[in-house]
Amino acid sequence: MDFVLETKNIDKYFDKPVKFHVLKDISLGIRKGEFASIMGKSGSGKSTLLYILSTMDTDYTGELFLNNELITGQKHGKLSQIRNKNIGFVFQFHYLLSEFSVLENVMLPAKKLGEKSLAEIEHDAMEKLRMLDILKLAHQRASRISGGEKQRVAIARALINNPAILMGDEPTGNLDSHNSENVFSIFKRLKEEEDLSLLIVTHDEDFAKRTDRIIQMEDGRILD
Amino acid sequence: MINWKVILNIAKTHLLTKMKSTVTASLGVTFGIGAYITLVSFMTGLNEMLDSLILNQTPHIHIYNEIEPSDEQPIALYQEFEDAFNVVNSVKPKQSQKKIHNGLPILNYLKKDEKVYGATPQLRAQIFYLSGSIELGGNLVGVDIMEEARLSNIGDYIVEGTAQDLKNSDNGILLGAGLAQKMSLKKGDRVQISTIKGDVFPLKIVGIYQSGIAEIDNIQSYANLKTVQRILGEAQNYITDINVKLYDINEATTMAKSLGKQFQVKATSINEANAQFETGSNIRNLITYAVSITLLIVAGFGIYNILNMLIYEKMKDIAILKAIGFSGNDVQLIFMCQAMIIGVLGGILGLIVGFVLSKLIDNVAFETEALPTITTYPIDYDIWYYVIGISFALISTFVAGWLPSNKAKHIDPVRIIRGT
Q1: Which of A98, A150, B152, B183 has its CA 20 to 30 A from that of A32?
Q2: Shortest CA distance to B153 belongs to which of B248, B219, B59?
Q3: Chain B partners of A51 at a C-beta cutoff of 8 Å?
Q4: Domain residue limits, chain A
Q5: Residue B355 parent element (H or E)
């Protein structure tokens, strides 16, 4: 089996306010080109899982593999690099850097990666913006555009380094149905046209039903 | 792998969008450094002026013949009394002359020494200035005036006439300013002096001498060495003092010791002569530095405060940067860059402000009877104060930036993104 992302026996505890077993023995794998969604009630641990998968949270036991490479136990600096190159992340709230222009926001991860020249990065960023149909916003300040547009900019930013997997923490949770539909179709297109793997945490049942696979979570476990 | 261009660009954007905080923080540094430069330049300028007031009139080594009792009384030479307890009553000073024995050979020896910048002979004579029936006690110092002018700044204190005028006149005198005032005399007048023995000589006033120290100006006058020797009726080798100026003032103490031993004379160095004076100027310097450091520390706290605020405001940005692949070190560098930019800008501006303020003070009129050569407030434009100022600006912004940026480095992005 060729998994982009794979976990083995992940356990996590919260210490505060009381000791709480939030993730219980999570083992799952995301295949290349798979569009998976994680569903569950609030408090079921789905977001917590997602942050562990995204390498931002390192406080867990078990093993995490990305492209069949063990990620668990790597140093923070190395994890930042992995995150920069291989993982695109879209949050519920757009989280753009409001002082920078849309184009600069999108270019930033690629500049950090530093594998391409500035001209190439700018070209790539414009391509992504064109693909998401927001090219005309390129030189606007990120704080001056609408919520739906911001989320698309965030997706463009997540894609700029052509990551192995795109993760979303309720990326449509804060959008109206029109914009939600829009974001979903973008994800769908990315999967079909670019063979991108996606893992999206969502509350939205309609959204989840249209993905390839729903991972149901309850009380820190995956239900099958 | 640090991408400086990206980091600097982010730092620049943060600073430019928070212009108000940036300006406030920079101004904090500017005022701190500016005040430091002004204060230290002004205070050391004053110190130097006061120091030079005394020090320029004190030779590095002063050689003279002290009238004192012998260390060993003749009885110590008798072997019969070797083990006895000898009591000598009414000990008198050793019979000796006031003049330095072999004065001229010593002078020549000193002039050939390569450590010596110059040595001048002096003859100090107790005299009376006669004004009608009034007798004013005082000194007349016979000097080699041109050599004296070369080695000390006596020329600055000749307020009327010149050193050359005295040299050219066989019976000229540079009268102390206080004396001139007391006796209502001016340049060109004649003054009568009388030696202790009672011989009266008329001298022509070729100039007025004002050191700024009233005790000196009220009693002391200068004349040519030969003139004074003639007045006293002494030979040309009669000198009572030799003043030595060295290339390196720090060698004064050791050299004074060896000269004293070598020539059997009293030789005191400038350090001995002005010990308590040194203490005074050291304490003044200490106060200067204490005040300056306080100013700089206050500026440092200002920077710390503003950067701290900036980082709290940018908490979300920090989380985003970390989420898209910037490491903790990158984030720390971003904020350190901001601190250093504030430090460099504020520091350089502070140097300029300090320089301009110093220039202003330097041009304020400051005239005082005591200091004939001073017309404006003294300022010391030592380049080192500027070097220290900018270094402290950089160091304090570095420290002030390090603490908050270190906090930013360890911020957990998950906690901020999830809002817990």
Answers
A1: A150
A2: B59
A3: 414, 417-418
A4: 3-223
A5: helix B328-362
Judging contacts by C-beta atoms under 8 Å, the chain A residues touching residue B1 are 81, 114
A197-201/A20-31 β-pairing: unpaired
Could A99 and B17 be called an inter-chain contact, meaning their C-beta atoms sit closer than 8 Å?
A: yes
Q: Assign residue A154 a region (left: φ > 0; alpha: ψ between -120 and 50; beta: otherwise).
A: alpha
- Residue A46: its chain B contacts at CB < 8 A? none
Residues B104-134: tens digit of each pLDDT: 888 898 888 888 888 999 999 999 998 888 8
DSSP E strand stretches across B82-199: 116-131, 134-143, 158-160, 172-176, 190-195
Domain A3-223 has CATH 3.40.50.300: yes
Predicted confidence (pLDDT) per residue in A4-61, tens digit: 778 888 788 887 778 888 877 778 888 887 888 888 887 777 788 888 888 888 778 8
Give A112's contacts in chain B (Cβ within 8 Å). 3, 6, 324-326, 330
> Identity (one letter) of the amino acid at B254?
T
Separation between Cα atoms, residue B395 and residue B347, nearest integer Å? 11
HSE at residue B89, side-chain half, CA atoms within 13 A, is 0
Task: Tell whether the torsion through CA atoms of A111, A116, A117 and A122 is positive or negative.
Answer: negative
Task: Mark residue B212 as left, alpha or beta (left: phi above 0; alpha: psi -120 to 50; beta: remaining).
Answer: left
Select from A80, A91, A97 the Cβ nearest to the Cβ of B417. A91
State the Cα angle at A166 between A160 and A170, rounded to 5°: 120
What ipTM was assigned to the predicted interfaces of this complex? 0.83
Give me the total of CB pairs closer than 8 Å, taking one residue from chain A and one from chain B.
71
Which residue bears the tokens 């979903």? A184
A170: distance to nearest CA of chain B, Å?
12
Which token pair is B134?
């009034």
Cα dist from A64 to A11, B3, B22, B253, B376, whole Å: 11, 28, 43, 77, 77
The whole model's pTM is what?
0.69
CB interface of A with B, residues 135-174, below 8 Å: 157-158, 161, 169
In whole angstroms, give the CA distance from residue B359 to residue B367: 17
Q: Six-digit token pair at A2? A: 């060729």
Per-residue pLDDT tens digits for B389-418? 888 888 888 888 888 888 888 877 777 776
Contact (CB<8Å) A56/B413: yes
User: Which parts of chain A sit beneath pLDDT 50?
Assistant: none
Choose among B14, B316, B329: nearest Cβ to A77: B329
Which tokens is A109 given?
A: 């991860």
A131: left (phi over 0), alpha (psi -120 to 50) or beta: alpha
Amino acid at site B289: Y
| CB within 8 Å: B323 and A95 | yes
